[in-house]
Amino acid sequence: MNKTILFIHSAGPQGPNQGSSNLINYLEQELENSYQIIHPQMPAPEDPKYDQWKHQLEKELSLLNGEAILIGHSLGGSVLLKYLSEHSCKLTIRGLFILASPYWGLDEEWQLADFMLQHHFADKLPSIANIFLYHSRNEKIVPFAHHQAYAKKLPQAAARQIDGDRHLFHDGLAVLVDDIKGL
C-alpha cells in the first residue's frame, strides 16, 4: 500500500509551470511507486485568507487515515504550522516538511496577522518525530532569515540550507526526496 503525502501549495497562480506545480510534478515522478501525493486546490491562492485555507486543510486531513506525510511549500508551510499548533489532529504525522515558508510577523514586510503563529507555537505542535525545514540561502522571495527563525523555534528539526536562490524549486529538490524516502 502506498504511503500518503498531503502537499499544501504556495500562494499565487497555480496553473501549469506556476507556483508549486512543477515541484509537485517532480515529487510525483520521483516517488510514484511508493507514495500517493494529494495536492488539493486551496481557496483563492492569489488572495489567500487563513480561515479559508484552514477549512480546506481540515477537510483534507479528515479524509486521511493512519500515517501521513505533510509537506507545506511557502504559504502552505505557514498554514500547516499554524493549523497544527492551534488545532488537534488525530492523524499520525510521519514527517512534516516545510519549504521556503515565511515566518509571518518576523519583519515589516511579512505582516499578515491572520497567518501569524502564536508566540509558543512550537510547544503546541503535536508529537512529530520528523520535522524538516528547507530554504535557499540567497532566496529573493522569502528571506533566509525566516528559515533561521523557524530553525531557532524548532531546534529538533533538520534544517536544510539550499545553495542558490530558488523559492519555487521548479526543477525539483533531491534532498527532499531523499529525506522522505529516509523516513
UniProtKB/TrEMBL annotation:
<dbReference type="InterPro" id="IPR010662">
    <property type="entry name" value="RBBP9/YdeN"/>
</dbReference>
<protein>
    <submittedName>
        <fullName>Alpha/beta hydrolase</fullName>
    </submittedName>
</protein>
<keyword id="KW-0378">Hydrolase</keyword>
<dbReference type="GO" id="GO:0016787">
    <property type="term" value="F:hydrolase activity"/>
</dbReference>
<dbReference type="InterPro" id="IPR029058">
    <property type="entry name" value="AB_hydrolase_fold"/>
</dbReference>
<dbReference type="Pfam" id="PF06821">
    <property type="entry name" value="Ser_hydrolase"/>
</dbReference>
